[in-house]
Amino acid sequence: MTPQVNENAPTRRDPGHLLAESVATHTADAAPLIVGIGGSAGSLSPLRELLAAIPADCGMAFVVVSHQAPGAHSMLPEILAKCTGLPVSGIGEETRVEPNHVYVELRGQNVAIRAGMLSLEPIVPRGIPHLPIDLFFRALARDQASHAAGIVLSGTGTDGTLGLAAIRAASGFSLVQDPATAEFDGMPVSAIHARAVDFVLPPAEMPARLLAHRKELVSLARVDAAPEIADNEIQSVLAVMRQRGGRDFSEYKHATLARRIARRMHLHGIGGLEEYARYLEQSDVEIDSLWHDWLIGVSSFFRDPEAFRALGSALPELLAEREDGSLLRIWVPGCATGEEAYSLVILLLETLRQLEKHLEVQLFATDLNPAAIQVARAGRYPEGIAADVSPPRLSQFFVREDGFYRVRKELRDLVVFAVQDVLHDPPFTRIDLISCRNLLIYLEPNAQQRLLRSFHYSLNPRGFLLLGSSENTAGSEEFFLPLDGRSRLYRRNDFTAPQPTLRWPAGQGAPLGAPTGAPPVAPRSDLASPLRRALAERFGPPAVLVDERGQVQQVHGQVGAYLELPAGRVNVNIVDMARQGLRAPIASALREAIQTDGRVAERSVRIQVDGNQLTLNLKVSRLHEPRLPARMFLVSFEPTNRSPRKRSRNAETTEKEARTQHKEHLEQELQNTRHDLQGSIEEVLAANEELAAANEEAQSANEELQSTNEELQTAKEETQSLNEELHTVNAELTLKLETFERATDDLLNLMNNIEVAAIFLDAQLRVKRFTPQARRVAYLIDADIGRPLAHLTTLLDYPELLSDAASVIETLHGSETQAAAPDGSWYLVRIRPYRTARNIVEGVVVTFIDITEAKRNERLQASRVLAESIVDAVREPFLVLDDGLRVVRANRAYYRAFREEPGETEGRLIGDLGSRQWSIPLLRERLEKALQEGTGFVDFEVETELPHLGRRKLLLNARALTPKQGTVAELILLGIQEISAPQADASRPAGERP
After folding, report:
1. Do residues 149 and 175 lie in contact, with contact meaning Cβ atoms separated by under 8 Å?
2. Average pLDDT, the chain
3. 15-225: which CATH architecture?
4. Known catalytic residue at 159
5. In a 3-state reduction of DSSP, which class is residue 977?
6. Does 537-561+573-643 carry CATH code 3.30.450.20?
7. Is the confidence at residue 964, as pLDDT, over 60?
8. Nearest-5° angle of CA 944, CA 945, CA 951?
9. What is the model's pTM?
10. Is 662 a catalytic residue?
11. What is the average per-residue pLDDT within 21-41?
12. Residue 869 catalytic?
């Protein structure tokens, strides 16, 4: 979606009136807002409009970077100084940025900024496009962060797109000129399509928006902090995003989310979070913009080169044990617009080529943002990527087209892009390498740990994990072993058991609009609970709370004399933890309490504790508490004799009484044992009955499974038959697909090599396709596909093109017209209906055939015919001679006067004509001189003997015919006029007059 100014956004101030307000909010200790302005063709006029509307005390500094030839002298400072009250100066080797100033790059060099200091850097020839705007904007984002702003004005190409994305990712501010007002909309449209823009405005409206942004920055600087948003306050925005956006961001770091929310509030001039939440509920555009801000999908090719060098050094170890033809699987979660995924594939292919191995590569790249995935799937990036990708890689893995670089098909086929929420969707498995860079830093610690455990589960043994430079495996160190700690490269720890931690969003099953983080209501004061707790701790016996399976849930008092942890794996089952003599009584009492579900089960037990006998009253009862998640039972241990009895000479009881008590105790234990045995027997009988019923059910299920198996066998045979048919159909479809691909390749090659300009239009006269030669007759780029032909400018003098095309669609009769271009060339414009294979007309095809040479030949032929007609119409004999004095042409008067034939004349030297009557040295000399000097002669008198006519006196006139002034003549025209019969004076030489 194209970010635009939302006129319905609630604002507490109108930026359109800020120019009339005082800008006294600027303080000396506040850092100035540095605004980078980039433009190319047609940017001078909007630049002047922008600077003319900025007050002299705006508190901002402006750095103008444009496309200039290296070493060229720019008059831009003088031009801009006339339209703004701000001082305008050129950028020197070291220039400190001061507020209320305009700085202009003059020498066609790259501009850098460090610690607020501008500097110039020479252009290093690399055989790639020079993109000064991207380079400066990136440097500005790194140096100034939120105090950076970028503006892209009119221009061709894509320069500035990646730079604006970097500024926006650093919490800066970005503007582009409205393409409708731009003379050349290539750069603004590219930035808009890349979603790197906060506002799209005409140049005259940009200063107001900049001042509003500057005012907010100053107010934040006064309190030295961004507006804080508490966790409970952000829940309202999260609830709207869950309900309207369909995703749960509750596990992202709230501090990051709060900063991005504050940025959106600032852009719209909204002061309160509740007001912003209401605005979100009413605006799908704002939901989309906040979503895009939260995801922060900033990426670049070979980002952090040190990490890629470390990975390149470790890849041979990963690939060493791989056999040729085996499958290598890679996963890139959080891939953004795909640059990192393609970078990994490039690095892997280069490594495989070095190792001379041939593996099948499959890379899965996922992201939560569907718009970013669409960009990644297209594989078409601005030409600014040349700053991150070396020229050899550009030429090998990319194709340049109209200011963009497109990933080659053989590279694109290795990557699968998909939309995925890594926190909640199932992970990919059997992965050899995971590259998750700069995603963990945006998640809460618990989510980070869960994601790292998921990565451990996904990786194959000895698989690699690559994290971002600011990330680590803290809290999950047992799952990964560091390979290169500095570059955050780890290997899977195969001695740790995999722990998949899939978890669905907490909001599922509940209304999405309900806030999940509402503050709890404080309970009323209740003294009964603490009173009961105090009495239980003081007077209550040791006890253990267990569930139906005997698993210990909570312990009260000192139970070490009755329970102990068993050896081996940790087990908290009370029966397994019971000391000698207690296991059977606890098991039977717990079983009785579960069966009766209300009666207290009691047992009297005598056990040995530290060598002394101790009699216990064991009780098991159910707790009837509605808030408990399941049935719970309380097992209590009540000693009946607190002090152990010891034999002594002064014993108070007699031996007889001791034997009586011992007998009674044995009888009680025997009774308990019988009771337990009877219960066990009853349980065994019940279990046998259940097993018998289960056996019958199993036999019935076995019969059903047998029947199902027979049905499955029949279905398998049918499926096999169907599979064979599908295989045949698949082979046919594959053959057809190959045929279509060859036909497509032939058509593409035909269109690219026929050297005929052609434009394909749909029924609404919108551009569907065009051949490369069409750029000669119209200003066309790939982005023009889909645009109406009326919006494009053609170079031909053919104003009826649109009406003729519409007439062809209406009448289905073709049209042909000859039209001239400004450079003097001519084209035959042929318009024919565009018919599909089903003979349906879906538009027209306009072809432009260059007929310039044919036009020129027509003119020459017409001129030649005219000249020959004129020569033949003259009554005086004429000869046309070439520069070798051979006869090229003779008119009819010549042939009549001298009684010669064309075959005897044309193509022969003048001196060889007739009886060599023209073989006169002085005549030859005069003719050669006329050819050399491009002149002629007049009234040259000759007396000679002519065949059939006798001796005659002739007067000759010659004129050289030169193609250009001052050049050697190529032809000479010789006119012959008879004066009279000659006088008898043999002493006078030929060629002299009396």
Report:
1. yes
2. 78
3. 3-Layer(aba) Sandwich (3.40)
4. yes
5. strand
6. yes
7. no
8. 90
9. 0.48
10. no
11. 63
12. no
